[in-house]
Amino acid sequence: MTAEQVPHYPFPSPAALEPPQEWAGLRDGCPIAPIRLASGDRALLLTRYDDVKQVLSDPRFTRQLDAPGAARVTANESGGVFGSGGSSMSGEEHRAWRQLVGKAFTAKRVMAMQPRIEAMAVELVERMAAEGAPADLVGAVGFPLPVRAICDLLGVPGSDREKFAYWSDTMLSMTRFGQEEIDAAQAEFDGYLVALVAAKRAEPGDDLISELLAMVAGLDGRLTEQLMLGTAKGLLVAGHETTANMIGKMVAMLLADRTRWEALLADRTLVRPAVEEALRFDANPGFGMPRYLSEEVEVAGERLPGGTTVICSMASANRDERQFEGAGELRLDRSPNPHVAFGAGPHSCIGQALARTELQTVLKVLLDRLPALELAVPAGELRRREGLIVGGLERVPVRW
């Protein structure tokens, strides 16, 4: 394949809720495909379920994307979400970190948050309803809800929530912001977190940062302060941006064919499997998961040399007919549904219990409060958010 023939990645999509046409062809004919990234560097794209799952679960595929020879994911040199901040831990360090954060980030804690998340969702939906139709679901509910929830979890004052959306966007930039702007925003974000951690140390509360600080104090520096800041930062960015986008996409998918919404109105037991199916069916999750290969590994019968950067397309894997019967159809009652929307293996998303709780809760609240909800524009007119590593919709105009 000549340099001209290596396709640019991410691929464009025919419409906001539809997958790029390339995925199906690559899954069938070229499951390990050369691609060119925004930086101009080359990498390999994996599109099949088994291959994606294998790579995400194999410790030889590392997150050391700042290694010499690793492909640069974005056009920016540094400061992005795939930069070295905390992602270059050794396997041992990462296991220790996961264990600690996992202890604080338990399903029990998330379950205890559910009533607060529901109260937040009710307040936001009622405010949207009071302001009248048409409304933008993304701006009115999608973005504010996860920011409130993650701030609540971390013990961040409500008055500071607005700053996070901007800081988060700069960290997830592929082409949207220049390097200077990213660096300035990161410095501001770091300064804010240092001050927040100091405040929590002086006066601990019932929140995740205070709990992590107590663990650091008793652990001979196994979780260093720098790592702690990285953790808070990662949870803030991942915890609000991905879920915020997913709320808009999930509702758009369910309203694009309104028989889906009516099925949920008729049977609320479908809410949980419908959320899982929306996660699987999401054709616009963003960039995918990059991995750097520390030594030669065999994938799909092909030997990949050490020093290779691969991009795992979880969204393409989630539409693999080899794994999911009728993969191209959205089935509200699909079970089992072993999708890889949250990744797989040792780096799978640590906040997935919180994300699921937020998605299920917001869907229930919308069904209860606005049963007549519908898209205010044809689904084909919805527009994707561009230039960021995470996928999403700019707006989801609705009426009721």
Automatic annotation (TrEMBL):
Supply the alphabetized keyword list: Heme, Iron, Metal-binding, Monooxygenase, Oxidoreductase
This protein's source sits in the domain of life called Bacteria
Q: Which CDD domains would you find in this protein's record?
A: Cyp158A-like
Give a yes or no for keyword Transmembrane in this entry.
no
Necessary cofactors: heme
Any Pfam family matching the protein? p450
Molecular-function GO terms, alphabetical: heme binding; iron ion binding; monooxygenase activity; oxidoreductase activity, acting on paired donors, with incorporation or reduction of molecular oxygen
Under the heading InterPro entries, the entry gives:
Cyt_P450 (IPR001128), Cyt_P450_B (IPR002397), Cyt_P450_CS (IPR017972), Cyt_P450_sf (IPR036396)
Family affiliation: Belongs to the cytochrome P450 family.
Name this protein carries in UniProt:
Cytochrome P450
Q: Which organism is it from?
A: Nonomuraea rubra
